[in-house]
């Protein structure tokens, strides 16, 4: 399994490269997406993971399917976002508590748009749009920041160390 890299790694500060659409369904990208999902699933508190977090400088992120249960969205949802772009962002901003699998064990409050629409390709190479509010809007903004070399601690207020209890 690929390790989740931490904030000191320079890859996290690079602008990730677009994935050629024709390559999305090829084995290399599919394997990288599988590696991302495996790394995300290894973290009990992970909601999403961007490719740079496992040292792949490509514009992709995955969302834990459990998120859609938390936010009570019915039916199948896209969990792979390739070459994502924010096409709408509400003007209203909310301060939201945030952490990051690559910035352990820091947490802080980040002002994020409360509603965001993203356009991306799924893991089948199909273009789609998805609107997110609350947690999903926060995930979209946090993960796209990763693809642009930005960490939440660059924007956060009241950053502090927080040790979470694990049920292990």
Structure overview:
Helices cover 20% and strands 30% of the residues. The protein has helices spanning 27-41, 66-70, 135-147, and strands spanning 48-50, 60-63, 80-89, 93-99, 106-113, 115-121, 127-133, 157-161. The protein is globular and about 45 Å long. The protein starts with 26 loop residues before the first helix and ends in a 7-residue tail after the last strand.
Structure characteristics:
168 residues; alpha+beta; three-stranded antiparallel sheet; 8 strands; 30% strand; globular
Number of helices: 3
Structural class: alpha+beta
**Helix-strand string:** HEEHEEEEEHE
Based on CA atoms alone, the radius of gyration comes out at 15 Å
Shape: globular
End-to-end Cα distance, whole Å, is 20 Å
Strand content: 25-35%
* Number of E-type strands: 8
Helix content: 10-25%
What would a concise description of this structure say?
By secondary structure, this protein is α+β, with helices and mostly antiparallel strands. The mean pLDDT is 94. The chain is built from three helices and eight strands; from the N terminus they run αββαβββββαβ.
Task: Tell me the layout of helices and strands.
Elements: H1 27-41, E1 48-50, E2 60-63, H2 66-70, E3 80-89, E4 93-99, E5 106-113, E6 115-121, E7 127-133, H3 135-147, E8 157-161
Antiparallel strand pairs: 1-2, 2-3, 3-6, 4-5, 5-8, 6-7
């Amino acid at each position: 399994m690929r390790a989740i890299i931490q904030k000191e790694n320079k890859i996290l500060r690079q602008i990730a490269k677009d994935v050629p659409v024709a390559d999305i369904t090829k084995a290399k990208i599919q394997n990288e997406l599988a590696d991302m999902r495996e790394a995300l699933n290894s973290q009990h508190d992970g909601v999403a993971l961007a490719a740079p977090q496992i040292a792949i400088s490509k514009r992709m992120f995955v969302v834990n399917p459990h998120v859609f249960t938390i936010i009570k969205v019915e039916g199948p949802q896209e969990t792979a976002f390739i070459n994502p772009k924010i096409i709408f962002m509400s003007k209203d901003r909310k301060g939201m508590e945030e952490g990051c699998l690559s910035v352990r064990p820091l947490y802080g409050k980040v002002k994020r748009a409360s509603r965001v629409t993203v356009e991306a390709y799924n893991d089948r190479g199909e273009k789609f749009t998805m609107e997110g509010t609350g947690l999903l809007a926060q995930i979209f903004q946090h993960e796209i920041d990763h693809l642009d070399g930005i960490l939440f601690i660059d924007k956060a207020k009241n950053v502090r160390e927080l040790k979470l209890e694990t049920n292990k």
